[in-house]
Write a structure and sequence with these properties.
Blueprint lengths: L29 E5 H5 L11 H7 L8 H33 L8 E7 L5 H12 L8 E5 L7 H6 L14 H12 L4 E8 L4 E11 L3 E6 L19 E6 L2 H17 L17 H24 L8 E5 L5 E7 L3
Parallel strand pairs: 2-6, 2-7, 3-6, 7-8
Antiparallel strand pairs: 1-9, 4-5, 8-9
Helix pairs in contact: 3-4, 7-8
């Protein structure tokens, strides 16, 4: 996230506090796949996405190639298709046990990761591919941005510089949405967030009608909280964490900020239009300060600690390419 104005000084988290490398790799619930090993699990899953379609799905400064779609995304869609089939069978058996008509609730997939790590692009590409499987054509993608508290509320709580941290979200609204989705409600409503205005759009919602699958993407979707009995992760059937080294993510954040300066920030109506003409040296300094004082603490304190709760971890290299996949329970 980018702050509205000047940065808080704040306390900085020591560099050695991040779980960048687990203390021990000897005990792990994950099986580690190289990209080549993972690609072999594609089997005969067809590539249904063209390069032109992929171009429209790519995020700002986040390159994804068709080779990566073949090697990483297609095996994942095959796995998820098998998971959905098993999930539906289990639902049918449970409904039979309860003596009620069979209900079809959507299969919920969480996608987590840092600011600028590429999780939004990952989610869009995955959603597009999943929607082309014949068994689940209705695939909805929801970002947690819609559940951020409005700026006026953040300002009242002195949280504008904590936007993107767990406390900046309307957690009750998010949990209600996930509970209704899991209950199989026919119509789901999601508040609309404007990246131009950097705020929730008042009295506007997006409507989702009976999705077969629902992808829920955001910074803290796997977050836990002491003393809280129900969390967002209680509703997910499968979860994915998009991972990379801190240094790489910082570089990507800087690149994205400089690119947005030349594009989205040029819009006079943009909340961050005031940064559009900032000179390059000041822009680089500003972006690195934002990373150090806001996004890095959020990553270390809130986001990265949830990584090992994910069912699947995709690991990216400095050039954005995915080099390693970790699958829970495959050992």
């Amino acid at each position: 996230m980018i702050p509205p104005a000047s940065l808080p000084s704040g306390n900085r988290t020591p560099a050695n506090s991040t779980p960048e490398n687990p203390a021990s790799e000897s005990i792990s619930p994950y099986r580690i796949f190289t990209r080549a090993d993972w690609a072999a699990l594609r089997a005969h899953t067809p590539l249904t996405l063209s390069d032109a379609e992929l171009e429209r799905l790519r995020g700002v400064g986040d390159p994804v190639s068709l080779d990566e779609v073949r090697d990483v995304y297609l095996p994942l869609t095959r796995l998820l298709n098998l998971q959905v089939a098993a999930h539906r069978q289990l639902q049918t058996l449970r409904d039979a046990f309860l003596g009620r008509p069979s209900q079809r609730a959507p299969y919920l997939v969480a996608i987590a990761g840092s600011v600028a790590v590429g999780k939004s692009t990952f989610a869009r590409v995955l959603a597009a591919l999943l929607a082309r499987w014949p068994d689940h054509p209705r695939v909805a993608l929801v970002a947690t941005d819609g559940f951020l508290l409005p700026n006026r509320e953040l300002e009242a709580r002195s949280l504008m510089h904590r936007k993107g941290f767990p406390e900046s979200y309307d957690q009750k609204a998010m949990l209600r949405f996930l509970a209704r989705a899991k209950a199989g409600d026919a119509t789901l409503s999601v508040p609309v967030y404007s990246h131009v205005e950097y705020d929730i759009v008042p009295d506007k919602v997006d409507t989702i009608e009976r999705p077969d699958m629902l992808l829920f993407e955001g910074l803290n979707v796997l977050q836990t909280a002491p003393g809280v009995s129900i969390m967002a992760s209680d509703f997910f059937d499968f979860s994915i964490y998009v991972d990379a080294d801190e240094a790489s993510i910082e570089d990507w954040f800087l690149e994205r900020f400089l690119l947005l300066q030349r594009t989205a920030f040029q819009n006079p109506d943009a909340y961050f239009h005031r940064f559009a003409d900032m000179d390059r040296d000041k822009s680089i300094t500003f972006a690195r300060d934002v990373w150090r004082d806001i996004n890095l603490p959020n990553l270390r304190d809130n986001i990265a600690p949830t990584r090992d709760r994910a069912d699947l971890i995709v690991r990216k290299k400095a050039d954005h390419s995915i080099s390693e996949i970790r699958l829970r329970g495959a050992i």
